């Protein structure tokens, strides 16, 4: 399976700031997923996207499924300390997922 | 509560030893997966099973083996053939093709 290109690799943000991260692929996907992982735990699903062009929100999180089916972005608005963690994108066309390498977010209080 | 349970949380292996990681789910999901996670990398697929008594190799299956005798259980054995087994291992499950995967809390395997 291919690895997706996720950027940035890491970011330091000020509490209250909005942040954005994105994921690109050389192949198209029918489903894009965004997960958050806290240290020592498994990833938790944040948002699932099933249709090209789809824009979906979950609280302060907003994600979009790119119109080309080859990319997706995740925005976090008004960052808070508990937003710290690693965010992963994943694309899927069948039972298998391909993952990005993750974006590590650290919030400065 | 429904969920995925991985055990143990931490596991140590001696050189030349096989170890088995447990994954149990009570979500009635058909498909189950094993991933390996190394620092700074995304999750890589080891094995997956879409149905009981059937499983397929993922991208990095060498040195690993699995079984799927029951719908709720998908144990992973890390064999002595896996020369670099130190990693965080994650189990996941999903109901179907368009449903997102849900993960357990992982097992961290280290070499003594």
Oligomer: heterodimer
Task: Assign the structural class of chain A, choosing from mainly alpha, mainly beta, alpha/beta, alpha+beta, or little secondary structure.
Answer: mainly beta
- Strand element count of chain B: 11
Overall form of chain A: globular
The whole-angstrom Rg of chain A is 13 Å
What's the number of extended β-strand segments of chain A?
Answer: 11
Indicate the proportion of strand residues of chain A.
Answer: over 45%
Mean pLDDT of chain B: 92
Q: Determine the mean pLDDT of chain A.
A: 93
* Count, helices of chain A: 0
How helix-rich are the residues of chain B, as a percent range?
Answer: under 10%
N/C terminus separation of chain B: 35 Å
| Unreliably modeled segments of chain A | none
* Overall outline of chain B: globular
Helix count of chain B equals: 0
Topology order of chain A in helix (H) and strand (E) letters: EEEEEEEEEEE
Beta fraction of chain B: over 45%
Structural class of chain B: mainly beta
Distance between the termini of chain A: 38 Å
Structure explained in plain terms:
The complex is a heterodimer of chains A (109) and B (112). Chain A has strands spanning 5-7, 10-14, 19-24, 31-37, 44-49, 55-58, 61-65, 71-76, 85-92, 97-99, 103-108. The model of chain A has no long low-confidence stretch (mean pLDDT 93). By secondary structure, chain A is mostly beta strands. In chain B, 0% of the residues lie in helices and 49% in strands. Chain B has no helices and eleven strands. In chain B, a hairpin with a 2-residue loop joins strand 5 (44-51) and strand 6. Chain B is globular. The model of chain B has no long low-confidence stretch (mean pLDDT 92). The A-B interface holds A 1, 3-4, 6, 30-31, 33, 35, 40-45, 48, 50, 88, 94-97, 99-102 and B 4, 6, 31, 40-45, 48, 50, 58-59, 90, 92, 94, 97-98, 100-106, 108.
TL;DR?
Helices cover 0% and strands 54% of the residues of chain A. Chain A has 109 residues and is mainly β. In chain A, a hairpin with a 5-residue loop joins strand 7 and strand 8.
């Amino acid at each position: 399976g291919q690895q997706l290109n996720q950027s940035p690799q890491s970011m330091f943000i000020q509490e209250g700031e909005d942040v954005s991260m994105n994921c690109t692929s050389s192949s198209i996907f029918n489903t894009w997923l965004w997960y958050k992982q806290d240290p020592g735990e498994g990833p938790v699903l944040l948002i699932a996207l099933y249709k090209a062009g789809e824009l979906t929100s979950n609280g302060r999180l907003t994600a979009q499924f790119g119109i080309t089916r080859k990319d997706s972005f995740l925005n976090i608005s008004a960052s808070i300390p508990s937003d710290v963690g690693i965010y992963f994108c994943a694309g899927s066309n069948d039972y298998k997922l391909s993952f990005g390498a993750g974006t590590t977010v650290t919030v400065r209080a | 509560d429904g969920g995925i349970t991985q055990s143990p949380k931490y596991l140590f292996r001696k050189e030349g030893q096989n170890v088995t990681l447990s994954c149990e789910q009570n979500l009635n999901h058909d498909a189950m997966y094993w991933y390996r996670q190394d620092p700074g990398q995304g999750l890589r697929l080891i094995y997956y099973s879409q149905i009981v008594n059937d499983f397929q190799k993922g991208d990095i299956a060498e040195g690993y083996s699995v079984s799927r005798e029951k719908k709720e259980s998908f144990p992973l054995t890390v064999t002595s053939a896996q020369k670099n087994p130190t990693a965080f291992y994650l189990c996941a499950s999903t109901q179907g093709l368009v449903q997102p995967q849900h993960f357990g809390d992982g097992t961290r395997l280290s070499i003594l």
